[in-house]
Amino acid sequence: MRLLPAILAAAALLLPALASAAEPTRFTVEVRGKGPDVILIPGLTSSREVWADTVKQLEGRYRLHLIQVNGFAGAPAGANAQGAVVEPLEEEIAAYIADRKLKQPAVIGHSMGGFTGLLLAERHPEAVGKVMIVDALPFFSVLVGGPSATVDGIKPQAGALRDQMLAQTPEAFAAGQKGTMTRLVKSPEGLEKAVAWSLASDRGVVARAMYDVMTTDLRAALPGVKTPITVVYARDDKAMGPMGAFVGQLYQSQYAALPNKTLVEVDDALHFVMFDQPAAFAKAVDAFLQ
To answer: Where is the signal peptide (predicted)?
Structure first.
């Protein structure tokens, strides 16, 4: 019986530690390699396998935390089954960094994942050391409504797109996703993967995450973001036509207020830069992590 108080005391000490290291509900993590910590966040509908080449490049030198957003690419929806997706995801990644006592890891995010990285730098600057944003803007909806777009102005259109996606037949949804991906990936192999991940994603999670990105504007917060940010963006004059020349100007203008930034243009690529120009992307990643 004398052991009982000691056992209870040990349990009381252990339980808070177990609670603080609770498993995430918005994403799962696969940890690979050893070295300084790097968190990799995929984009809308994507699998963490989007980083396969980057993993091969880095896992001998870095400890990689490969995020899989719940509800994307066949992963169960988990806590993303209802409500907002992007801001709760960002908060849970910040909690993951704190719980695992990671020391200001580098964050690399593609598309929605890059936007989430920017959100981390803005709301939890103590958590991250530096961020690479791959082909994402601080306010996505300037692509829809131009530089003067506002959250209030875009909400009706964003809501309509969300509701339309939710109401589509499976056949219409599949056709729409395939059509969208052909405008985002040039690589045939990459296109096949992106389409498969998209079709395996939970439509409700995708629709609500898309709405979140369309209706969250971080431009006004940029002057206060002191974290070093690298923005990698794609340009393809053949595919984009006259818009190709405009892309660089768009990224320069939209990130103009960010004080500590590096912009990297990757030519002959669409949105999935890592698929279309793997060597150029690998070079940008190495430069970012140096």
So the answer is: 1-21
138 domain-assigned: yes
How many structural domains compose the chain? Answer: 1
Condensed to tens digits (0 to 9), the pLDDT of residues 71-98 reads 999 999 999 999 999 999 999 999 999 9
pLDDT for 21: 63
Using 70 as the pLDDT threshold, list the residues of the chain that sit under it.
1-21
Phi and psi at residue 171, to the nearest 5°:
-65, -45
Q: pTM to 2 decimals? A: 0.92
Range of 90's domain? Answer: 22-289
In a domain, 41, yes or no: yes
The predicted structure's pLDDT at residue 245: 79
Rounded CA-CA distance 228/190 in Å is 29
Residue 77, Cβ density class (10 Å: 0-12 exposed, 13-18 middle, ≥19 buried): middle
pLDDT at residue 239, as a whole number:
80
278 lies in a domain? yes
pLDDT confidence of residue 11: 44
Strands 63-69 and 27-32: antiparallel
The CATH number of the domain holding residue 138 is: 3.40.50.1820
The rounded distance, in Å, linking the Cα atoms of 223 and 121 is 12
Start-to-end C-alpha separation, the chain: 58
Cβ-based neighbour number of residue 160 at 10 Å = 11
| Residue 130 bridge partners (DSSP) | 106
